[in-house]
Amino acid sequence: MMQKIKKGDDVIVIAGRDKGKRGTVSQRIDERQLLVDGINTVKKHMKPNPMKGVTGGIVEKSMPIDQSNVMLFNPGTGKGERVGFKFLDDGKKVRVFKPSGEQVKV
Predict the structure, then answer these.
(1) Which residues is 74 bridged to in the sheet?
(2) Strands, DSSP E only, in 1-106?
(3) Are 34 and 17 in contact (CB under 8 A)?
(4) Buried b / exposed e across 66-75, counting CB within 10 Å, b at 16+?
(5) 3-state secondary structure of 69
């Protein structure tokens, strides 16, 4: 199954406390959860671990965000848009922006 949002995509947050912010998807955690750079950051208290070389203290960390709360960013229009799929003449499946029908450039 082809994902509508992939690693490396530019996304905009449409819900939650980071609404309106933009970031790049750094990782897909599972079917629904994404890690986006600079989005949904929390301060986590880390315990020192000399075996792993972790110093400990308060660390800023990105937490996963549900894919329903982000939208793929279209650089052409400058806003987030819905994504659909289309088959090209050679049988290749590609992602397209719904309003304009233009292909998503990776």
Answers:
(1) 79
(2) 10-13, 22-28, 33-36, 41-46, 57-62, 65-66, 70-74, 79-81, 83-87, 93-97
(3) no
(4) ebebbbbbbe
(5) helix
Q: Which two tokens stand for residue 4?
A: 């509508």
> What confidence score (pLDDT) does residue 106 get?
67
pTM greater than 0.85 (yes/no)? no
pLDDT per position as a tens digit, 42-68: 999 989 988 988 888 999 989 999 999
- Please give the DSSP secondary-structure letter assigned to residue 15: S
Residue 99: the pLDDT is 86
Distance of alpha carbon 3 from alpha carbon 106, whole angstroms: 13
What topology is assigned to 10-75 in CATH? SH3 type barrels. (2.30.30)
The count of residues in the chain is: 106
Non-local CB neighbours of 87 within 8 Å, separated by 6+ positions: 93, 94
